[in-house]
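Q: Given only this backbone (75 positions), what sequence would you predict?
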């Protein structure tokens, strides 16, 4: 990727961005996230989901990345 050096950090929402319509991360997206990691570019998940809605995704896909959540859920 010729333009990848321009990026300092990549943020991704969860629904409809990181996850497809089947609520899965595609192999192409998994490769892109690994490529970012190999290039030293941080990948950050952002979401309005609660932690219980994000942690299973991190576990299923073995993602180790920062997450930013907007606290808009009720306890």
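A: Predicted residues:
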């Amino acid at each position: 990727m010729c333009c990848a050096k321009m990026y300092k950090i990549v943020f991704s929402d969860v629904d409809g961005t990181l996850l497809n319509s089947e609520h899965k991360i595609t192999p192409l997206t998994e490769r892109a996230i690994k490529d970012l990691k190999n290039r030293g570019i941080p990948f950050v998940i952002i979401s309005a989901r609660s932690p219980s809605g994000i942690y299973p995704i991190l576990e299923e896909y073995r993602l180790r990345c920062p997450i930013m959540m907007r606290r808009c859920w009720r306890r």
